[in-house]
Amino acid sequence: MNQANELVRRQVAVLVASGGDRAALDAQAASASIPIVFSAGGDLVAHGRVASLGRPGANLTGVSLLTTLLEAKRLSLLREALPAATRIGLLVNPGGTTVQNGP
């Protein structure tokens, strides 16, 4: 039994799913009626977890930290801070916005 199922069994008033997409998915699978508040590092819309960030749907609400969308701005700020730098290396995950743990 995963932790989300155990919390549902204990009849909690709300589930808080923190620590990534997996926690939100487990909470969603465990209950369709208990409110779920999530914080996730990935794009829950792209991964099919919610309908939209503005209106996630069902019993879900929360925040998705789409930090990869800020990379261009971060690079621009780095160039301003280090104008003499001639080369800047950037490592990315070409497979998506976040590392997935499980389906």
Helix-and-strand structural type = alpha/beta
- What's the helix count? 3
- Give me the side-by-side strand order of the main sheet: 1-2-3
Average pLDDT metric: 76
Q: What is the rounded Rg?
A: 18 Å
Strand content: 5-15%
In whole angstroms, the N-to-C terminal distance is 17 Å
Count of extended strands: 3
Question: Can you describe this structure?
Answer:
The protein has about 100 residues and is α/β, with parallel strands linked by helices. The chain has three helices and three strands; from the N terminus they run H-E-H-E-E-H. A three-stranded parallel β-sheet has the order 1-2-3. Helix 1 (about 5-10) runs parallel beside helix 2. The chain is elongated, with a radius of gyration of 18 Å. Mean pLDDT is about 75; it is low at about 95-103.
Record the SSE blueprint:
Elements: H1 3-9, E1 15-18, H2 21-30, E2 36-40, E3 60-64, H3 71-81
Parallel strand pairs: 1-2, 2-3
Helix pairs in contact: 1-2
Brief summary:
The chain is of the alpha/beta class. It contains three helices and three strands.
Descriptive key words:
single chain, 103 residues, alpha/beta, 3 strands, elongated, disordered C terminus
